[in-house]
Design goal:
Length: 217
């Protein structure tokens, strides 16, 4: 599988948090925002926030900051959320169902077009207003008009098979929530999310904090 590198990945990962806070501020009627205020909210140095915003090409006004509405538009455009993105989800278990119910996806332009699962007991069910279809019918539904991305929420043992099927249907970008490294053609973009990675980091922080304070976890 080819590697698709993106520069300033940490900055990109901060963009959704910026956007969430900015939209709350906009709803509260705040027309301008300073990098210092966002830095306080994020627990960052203001210079980091300024450098993050510079990536988008937007410029603030000294002593005033940024216009909230313009900054929101700039960040959305930078990460590609100013356009609609279609997605199919494979695996309507606990994690897949949670993703379907994540309301903020709509604010980011993500729209689920199809949901598939191998469990026949789920076929025809509605999960957050999305009908669950038989995974064996993926080609029938997806090949005529492949979605922009395929989201994999299946066990690791079947993730590669599902990914191969999605690629054969014409899907060129995959968001993989299975804890396995997929082997796919070079022209297919893959973003792998390891949820346990966040838990591992939290566990290490707890252990480090305990050592610093003399506590025994």
């Amino acid at each position: 599988m080819g590697k698709h590198k993106v520069l300033n990945t940490p900055a990109i990962r901060r963009m959704p948090t910026y956007l969430h806070k900015l939209m709350l501020m906009q709803a509260a009627g705040e027309r301008f925002v300073s990098t210092s205020k966002l830095a306080d909210y994020m627990g960052l140095d203001p210079i980091i926030v300024r450098k993050d915003f510079e990536l988008t090409g937007i410029q603030g006004t000294p002593g005033v900051g940024f216009k909230t509405v313009e900054l929101i538009a700039s960040l959305r455009r930078f990460v590609g959320w100013d356009e609609r993105t279609t997605a199919c989800l494979v695996g309507a278990g606990s994690l897949g169902s949670a993703l379907l119910g994540y309301e903020e996806f709509a604010e980011y332009g993500l729209r689920f077009t199809y949901v598939f699962d191998a469990d026949s007991r789920k076929h025809g069910m509605l999960i957050h207003a999305h009908e669950v279809l038989d995974v064996r019918k993926m080609r029938e539904y997806l090949t005529p008009a492949p979605p922009d991305i395929g989201i994999i929420c299946v066990p690791s043992s079947t993730a590669q098979m599902v990914a191969d099927e999605l690629v054969q249907c014409g899907v060129k970008a995959i968001w993989n929530f299975a804890n396995v490294c997929l082997q796919l053609p070079h022209d297919v973009i893959v973003q792998r999310e390891v949820i346990a990675g966040g838990f591992a980091l939290l566990s290490m922080k707890r252990r480090s904090h305990g050592a610093e304070t003399g506590q025994d976890d």
